[in-house]
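Entry 14. Ran structure prediction on the chain below.
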Amino acid sequence: MSDPRRIAIIPARAGSKGVPDKNVRRIGGVSLLERALRCAQETDLFDRIFVSTDSPAYAQEAARLGIETPWLRPAELASDTALVADAIRHTLETFAARRERFDTLALLEPSSPLRTPDIVRRTVEAAEAQGWDAAFTVSPVPLSFHPLKQFRIDGEGAAAFVMREAVPNVNRQSLERTFIRNGLAYAVRVPAFLETHSIHGTRARAIVVEEPVVSIDTQEDLREAERLLALREKGSEVS
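Output, structure tokens:
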């Protein structure tokens, strides 16, 4: 893909219940929204950075960093049950109506403050590579939580393996590593997103991140993210 036009979409609806005003909560003196915006800016990848928000206060926070928010997200796309894919489609269609189109989009959620510009670049480049149309970051699942070791419990308390092929005794060394999405970065070619209505497109590449990652859902997550960021900054000072 030669000279693709790229947009970074940062979803930041108001009304978070687990952590009130989550997107503007501060870690290390910097709000989660500002961290996401700065990271997008520092990649030097994007023709447009857009905050998809229903909050004038969040739009004002973006403006302070030089990011224009030409419109607010409609209320029907800002509820607890609204899908982020619907908000992305609305963003793309609204820009298209204004004669501004993009080839690749990246989704950067403020709730993942441990992302780096390098992780975003790797994810976007992977989505644009030949043979792929999407990419997203993942973290390894500890083997102690492997699917072959997981049970479901019925209403009477009876336990049954989640995986049908699981056996009572499994050798740890024989377990294949599994992974979980960690929310640091998603990227997808716009035609693939519009066709599938999915950030995973039709063929997504996994970008493995071995470092600790936190997705902010609780007050405890905020404290853990702050701790990890402090350790990272301390490590960079030492090096």
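The mean pLDDT is 93. Will compare against last week's run tomorrow.
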